[in-house]
Amino acid sequence: MTTNDALARVAEQRERLAERARLPWWFWVLFSVATVGLVGCTLIQDRLPAGVGTWLVVWPSILVYLVAEWLVRRTRGISLSRRTFRDYPSARLPSVLFLVAALVGMFVVMVTAHVRPDIAVVALVVAAPLAVGAMVWVQHAMLADIRTGRVRTP
User: Fold this and answer.
1) Is it the case that residue 64 has pLDDT exceeding 90?
2) 127, 104 in Cβ contact below 8 A?
3) Burial status of residue 101 (CB atoms within 10 A of its CB: 0-12, 13-18, 19 or more)
4) Which has the closest alpha carbon to 97: 109, 87, 86, 84?
5) Rounded distance, CA 17 to CA 147, Å?
6) DSSP alpha helices (H): ranges in 40-152?
7) CA 40, CA 57: separation in Å to the nearest integer?
8) End-to-end distance of the chain based on CA atoms, in angstroms?
9) Alpha-carbon torsion (106, 109, 112, 114), positive or negative
10) Distance between CA 113 and CA 104 in Å, rounded?
11) pLDDT for position 126
12) Does residue 87 contact residue 152 with C-beta atoms inside 8 Å?
């Protein structure tokens, strides 16, 4: 086997791994529902007795994230590293943008939910898709790192 053949084989294996690591459509549906729940939880919590909103929205949203991740591991047979900043260099910027979109959205919703629920709903409608879009960008960056061999492993 020549060096070129070996390199072509490695590239083919990386491509297969990247395709296997691609998150399925149903993951993005679950992820979107959970993101909307977490970003918009303040809107619901204001209208419920203390603590009830947490049990009705926050914990189920977190559970949806965990179940979606578990289902991906179960159906795809792989587990992507949670240490995105360290292990996937190309995913650093979109990861930061995801956090910024989610946190700014949550902040605006929290601040305006009491006095201007209409602004809170607009913030939710803007922030949640931005956060999901940033996470789609994170996944594309992670797959690119897998294809090029830039993934850092412990």
Assistant:
1) yes
2) yes
3) buried
4) 84
5) 8
6) 41-45, 52-53, 59-76, 84-87, 92-112, 117-148
7) 9
8) 30
9) negative
10) 14
11) 85
12) yes
Place of tokens 């795809």: 76
74 versus 38: the higher-pLDDT residue is 74
Tokens of 40: 């918009």
Contact 44, 57 (CB under 8 A): yes
Pick the more confident residue, 46 or 29: 29
What average pLDDT does this structure show over 115-121?
84
Residues found in the chain: 154
Average pLDDT over residues 15-37: 88
Q: Mean pLDDT across the stretch 99-127? A: 83
Provide the sign of the torsion angle of the four alpha carbons 132, 137, 139, 140, taken in this order.
positive
Please give the torsion angle defined by the CA atoms of residues 26, 78, 96 and 90, in that order, rounded to the nearest 10 degrees: -120
- On the question of pLDDT at 85 being above 80, the answer is no
Nearest to 56 by CA among 38, 35, 29: 38
| Residue 117 to residue 2: CA distance in whole angstroms | 66
